[in-house]
Amino acid sequence: MHRFLILLFLIVTMACSQQKQLQRSYIGKSIAALTEELGKPQQIFDNESGKVYIFEKQEDLKGTEINQGKLTLDPIVTPKVQKTERLYVTVKDGVIVNIKQENEYERQ
User: Cα(first)–Cα(last) distance of the chain, in Å?
Assistant: First the structure.
């Protein structure tokens, strides 16, 4: 019974991930629908499976205080980071066939 619950938890976690939500939203649609939302792609190159469009979005994340659950004189603060989100979209005959997301964090 425990194995079944663990397996069910893993399946639900994988089905609800951000990657799966992107795939359900865009696979099978035209590239024009995605360019309306994200704008012009940063790079386009040909691959054996079709054209790959790379969309990039950068965002600065501020440092936040980590709650320690007790009163302290010196708070612990996370560093500021710059988040870069890249979407690799594979297009064949004008239709999206694959989409992959990659996040990169860089300390400032």
Answer: 48
